[in-house]
Amino acid sequence: MIAIGGAIGTGLFLGAGKAISKAGPSLILAYAIAGLVIFFIMRALGELLMYRPVSGSFSDYAREFLGPFWGYVTGWTYWLFWVVTGIVEVTAAASYVQYWNHSIPQWVSALVFTVILYFANLISVKLFGELEFWFSMVKVTAIIGMILIGVGVLTIGFSDAGDTATVTNLWNDGGFFPHGIGNTLMTLQIVMFAFLAVELVGVTAGEAKDPEKTLPKAINTVPWRIAVFYIGALIIILAVVPWGEFMPGVSPFVAAFQKIGLPAGAGIVNFVVLTAALSSCNSGMYSTGRMLRDLSLNGQGPKFFGQLTKRGLPLRGTTFSAALMLVGVWINYQWPGKAFDYVVSFATISGMWAWIVILVAQLRYRRKADRGELPQSAFRAPGAPWTSLFALAFIFMVIVMMGIDADARVSLYCAPVWAAIMWVSYLVLKRRNPQAFERKDYAQAIEVDQAA
């Protein structure tokens, strides 16, 4: 359930509102193509994990196949991704509160949620997995319920939307590409953001007791999750409600229930998407403290973050990450209408770095394996290297589209600054602790493990 829930988040619940108004029904095609790319990425990750299952695979594979510097950059960039994602989710949660009360400033809600989640992470982590299970159950149930109700409206014709609900809404109002293919391409960064964190399925499977069975199952279910929860849900919503009635900043699920004439249902769905956003932010806050501790213990981060409390909590790392998430409060104060767009674009560019690393590492691994330098993976990516090259080209096209988009361009300005910070900090840490950045003979380590 956690894996399924990881494929359903703010990108679909909130981001799809702006994407629909920009691309119309053609957004369905954008999700389908992007979903195919995600499957290629996951299969590339699966090939690497079956070759050598590790925890924290992105930075470890970057270290092996690209070099110590790239492993360092990947570890810190993935930490940054989760910090920024926390800001995105708090921003989304704050916007959901506006549905019930417009008098509450968006930045106030963002501040309250950040503080509550911070203290919740300091109390106990014992029930974390259980809570995330139920949060995922709520999201899955909500989408399945929406699909079933939408099918009922289309087939039986009940509710206020019964007279206008028809599958012809997918092409009647301006065609399938009402604003042209160009605008559809411009939505790809929102679409890709919706899929960010799906790679955590592979990381979880890599830590399982029986990865040979659990990993293929986890990765091969990605297509049907995308087909049902993204493409299926969007087809139903856009058939029930004409695409022109959706507005940016408003959850299309909430808008659909309002159109159907179920205000109570709209309120319930708004509560569901609110809890989904807070759940993701909670996961990010939980993860970032542990990521900082892991970097510290490997000599690739300040020792300050390596200590645990008596209760086993990485207090310092969590506090530092939560403090950075407060930047989201300031963004919501300065640009309440643009906060989501600005932060989503930066989260997308930092999150896609992990995908680029996975694909490049898999290409280099495949070449070495084909030459007999490394053992072959038991879960080879189909169509590789061409599928991996296609996925890389697609990701770089999305980055180009972000450069064209005035709102998303902000994140590309920040990328060189982050790269400079990584390079300078790498040089400093390498001088202090050169052993932490030495190349490791992974092939020899694998032979030792196999012999054992």
TrEMBL record:
Task: Enumerate the subcellular locations listed in this protein's record, separating them with semicolons.
Answer: Cell membrane
Main subcellular location of this protein, as a coarse class: membrane
- Residue span, Amino acid permease/ SLC12A domain: 1-434
Which protein is depicted?
Answer: Amino acid permease
- Key word Cytoplasm present: no
Which portions of this protein are annotated as coiled-coil regions?
none
Q: Which PANTHER family does the entry link to?
A: D-SERINE_D-ALANINE_GLYCINE TRANSPORTER, GABA PERMEASE
Which keywords are on file for this protein? Amino-acid transport, Cell membrane, Membrane, Transmembrane, Transmembrane helix, Transport
Species this chain originates from: Streptomyces roseoverticillatus
Q: Could you name the domain of life of the organism this protein comes from? A: Bacteria
How this chain sits in the membrane, per its record, is: Multi-pass membrane protein
Instruction: Keyword check for Membrane, yes or no.
Output: yes
Q: Where are the transmembrane segments?
A: 29-49, 69-88, 108-128, 140-159, 179-201, 222-244, 264-286, 313-333, 339-363, 384-404, 410-429
Q: Which InterPro entries match?
A: AA-permease/SLC12A_dom, Amino_acid_permease_CS
